[in-house]
Design a protein that fits this description.
The complex is a heterotrimer of chains A (222), B (248) and C (221).
Chain A lengths: L1 H45 L2 H16 L2 H16 L5 H26 L3 H9 L4 H16 L1 H14 L11 H12 L2 H29 L8
Helix pairs in contact in A: 1-2, 1-4, 1-7, 1-8, 1-9, 2-4, 3-4, 4-6, 4-7, 5-6, 7-9, 8-9
Chain B lengths: L2 E10 L2 E11 L4 E5 L6 H8 L7 E6 L2 E2 L5 H10 E4 L11 H11 L5 H14 L15 H13 L5 E5 L7 H16 L3 E5 L3 H7 L2 E6 L2 E6 L1 H7 L3 H14 L3
Parallel strand pairs in B: 3-8, 3-9, 6-7, 7-8
Antiparallel strand pairs in B: 1-2, 1-4, 4-5, 9-10
Helix pairs in contact in B: 3-4, 3-5, 4-5, 5-6, 8-9
Chain C lengths: L1 H45 L2 H16 L2 H11 L9 H26 L3 H9 L4 H31 L11 H12 L2 H29 L8
Classes of the chains: A mainly alpha (222), B alpha/beta (248), C mainly alpha (221).
Chain lengths: 222, 248, 221
């Protein structure tokens, strides 16, 4: 028992530096997902037939294909084909980001759809253009409503980040496995890794809850 | 004549809501649309500022025909024609003051200071200065509607369209909104209002327009329409309504 | 076309082999996962303080820890205690428990949405607690949980690909092996991706069909 505890304690700094990589990957992917997801949602709700169809296909693709397959396809297949020399870290963010954008777009789409039609009408009646209405009236409300869904998405992306281990990204799992294969203390080390993930999940969700309270509007009930 | 619409038609699916309605209004007049639900009053009002695109018909504002193919003309007419909705439609994520400011800043291009000053003035005009920093969720129905009137007035509209402004309010709150509307009439605002408030209309309107099934059945002075209407149907409607709402 | 014969002679056989393993992984995991979900969900809603707390802890852990870590624990970790599972068994175990935790969420939500009156009426008729849950509550709750549970199974189809990471060779594993031998990563993984997309779309259609078939008019909430 004490041997395993020592191993874990010795490995902890190494594993925690992996946590930094994990956080970087997750943050990058969620940001990518947000930046791509909002226009996708707006396009789905307000766009014309063709953009709507195309967006629908994009979403079907990125929600249907397994993460691992997409990582391999992108890193070994696409990049080699096109001659792009991207690091596993970059590919991880891009692929996780693309998949997250498909899911995030649905969160935003739901939030936009839950707003009463009158909001858009009133803005129009004042003479605002559609673009102005979307930016200044619809999105501020929809984005606030999306925070709980986003919280959920965060915990999903955090767990999916462990899969990027397969590409050699030096995040928590990769480092834990590295130490485990050398010390043979698999069980305690993986349990420690699991605990690190649980803590990261908890911290992230706490942070988002604080954000939710900060941007809350008095008495706003939907 | 400030606003003039000719032969407006609108069909939704297989139902023809407006079957060719024409109306006009001159500066300073208050015209009231009455009629049963489904008559097309709301749709007509929303066609006048092209919130709903009519299938046929034209609208002239101050002698200029609105070219509905041009987006710029549509934005322009909406700036110059104010609209008040039955369910207020205040922007829920903005305070009362910000609701009034947003149109001034984004549509009229005013700078922040000028917009704030103007918004303050409008809010005071409808008697809600202390509620400037409150959100719509914190206001009563009557207060919300007054803010929405302030929001529309801040844009300096030439005409105001009011779509059943008091229908969603508790009876005790109707009075405060009527007071504001009375004020607007006294100051010469041109308005077309759809309402079920017969007593108020009778007292304030220059002309009553009775609509049913997408057509104007009869129009004329309140005195005539309510007591001595020409059409059978008008008389029927008015007698039923005065029974319901009582003579004021 | 050369790639077409490559497709036919090399990719297809590999995919077929992998597909067989994938199905063998997915079906038991889905079924057992649902069972675990029902038991844990019911425990969380109807269990006493201790049982509910235990069930909640289970769910927090198995939803909070990445599936990859869980799989590694079952395959690489258990030998620490002298238990050796094959990659296949470790995978099914991991998928069952992880899926079960998620399923319990949907079951729990569905159970909570059933009006209290249902239970009262059954008890008034003399049903015991267990009888009520089995005969009155569950049939309704399972209908309500169908969209969520169905979606979870679709997720399972996708994350079955993670079995590769503990050397269980299913679709993804076969693809990786073939691709590393032939260096034709793009073609192989596009093919495998397409297979998954087809399976997922097919499963979605079935879910839609089931949702429609079991719909009771006016039962929405």
């Amino acid at each position: 028992m004490p041997e395993s505890l020592n191993t874990v304690i010795d490995a902890l700094p190494y594993m925690l530096s992996g946590a930094l990589i994990t956080i970087a990957v997750v943050a990058g992917a969620m940001l990518f997902g947000l930046v791509a997801g909002v226009p996708l949602a707006v396009g789905q709700v307000y766009g014309r037939r063709l953009p709507q169809r195309l967006i629908g296909i994009y979403i079907w693709f990125f929600r249907g294909i397994p993460l691992l397959v997409l990582l391999f396809l992108f890193y070994f297949g696409f990049c080699t084909l096109v001659g792009l020399n991207l690091s596993a870290f970059t590919v991880a963010i891009i692929v996780l980001g693309l998949i997250s954008s498909a899911y995030q777009s649905q969160i935003f789409r739901g939030a936009i759809g839950s707003l009463p039609a009158g909001q858009f009408k009133a803005a129009r009646a004042l003479g605002m253009s559609d673009t102005q209405t979307i930016i200044f009236v619809i999105l501020p409300q929809a984005l606030r409503l999306s925070i709980p869904g986003w919280s959920n998405e965060y915990s999903i992306v955090l767990k999916d980040s462990a899969v990027t281990f397969a590409l050699g990204v030096a995040e928590i799992m990769a480092r834990t496995h590295f130490v485990a294969t050398r010390t043979y203390q698999h069980m305690p080390l993986y349990i420690a890794a699991g605990i690190i993930y649980l803590v990261l999940t908890y911290l992230g969700i706490k942070a988002l809850r604080i954000l939710e309270n900060k941007v809350r509007i008095h008495g706003y009930i939907r | 004549m400030i606003l003039w619409a000719e032969n407006i038609r609108k069909t939704y699916g297989d139902r023809e809501i407006l079957k060719g309605v024409s109306l006009s209004i001159s500066k300073g007049e208050l015209k009231v649309l009455i009629g049963p639900s489904g008559a097309g009053k709301s749709t007509l009002l929303q066609c006048l500022n092209f919130l709903v695109m009519p299938d046929a018909g034209d609208v002239w504002l101050e002698g200029h025909k609105i070219d509905r193919a041009k987006k710029s003309e549509l934005y322009a007419i909406r700036q110059q024609v104010g609209m008040i909705f039955q369910d207020f439609n205040l922007f829920d994520h903005l305070t009362a003051l910000e609701n009034i400011k947003i149109g001034l800043i984004r549509v009229k291009g005013m700078d922040k200071k000028a917009a704030t000053d103007r918004a303050d003035a409008e809010l005071e005009r409808v008697g809600l200065k202390e509620h400037a920093k409150h959100y719509p969720a914190q206001l009563s129905g009557g207060q919300k509607q007054r803010v929405s009137i302030a929001r529309a007035l801040a844009m300096d509209p030439k005409v105001m369209l009011l779509d059943e402004p008091t229908s969603a309010l508790d009876p005790e709150l109707i009075g405060e909104v009527h007071a504001v509307i009375r004020d607007l009439v006294a100051n010469g605002m041109t308005m077309i209002m759809a309402t079920h408030q017969i007593g108020f209309s009778r007292a304030m309107a220059n002309e009553i327009i009775f609509m049913e099934n997408g057509l104007i059945v009869e129009q004329g002075e309140p005195r005539k329409i309510f007591s001595n209407a020409e059409c059978e149907r008008t008389r029927e409607f008015c007698s039923k309504v005065t029974d319901l709402y009582g003579e004021v | 076309m050369e790639w077409f014969s490559f497709l036919r002679d090399e990719i297809l056989p590999a995919l077929l082999k992998g597909f067989r393993v994938s199905i063998l992984l997915i079906v038991p995991s889905a079924v057992f996962g649902l069972c675990v979900g029902i038991v844990v969900g019911a425990a969380r809603v109807y269990g006493n303080r201790f049982v509910a707390a235990l069930a909640n802890a289970f769910v927090t852990i198995f939803r909070g820890v990445p599936l990859v870590v869980q799989l590694f624990i079952w395959y690489f970790g258990l030998p620490y205690f002298g238990i050796y599972f094959s990659p296949f068994v470790a995978s099914v175990l991991g998928f069952t428990l992880c899926s079960g935790a998620y399923q319990s969420e949907y079951i729990r939500g569905a159970l909570l949405s059933i009006k209290k009156g249902q239970m009262l009426a059954a008890q008034a008729l003399g049903f015991s607690r267990i009888q009520t849950i089995v005969s009155v509550i569950m049939p309704q709750a399972l209908r309500r949980a169908l969209p969520g549970s169905g979606n979870e199974i679709i997720y399972l189809i996708k994350y079955s690909s993670l079995a590769y990471m503990i050397t269980c060779i299913e679709l993804t594993g076969e693809a990786k092996i073939l691709a590393s031998h032939t260096f034709r990563y793009t073609e192989v993984f596009l093919a495998v991706g397409t297979v998954y997309l087809i399976i997922v779309s097919f499963a979605s259609r079935i879910l839609e069909y089931l949702e429609n078939r079991f719909r009771i008019p006016g039962f929405e909430r």
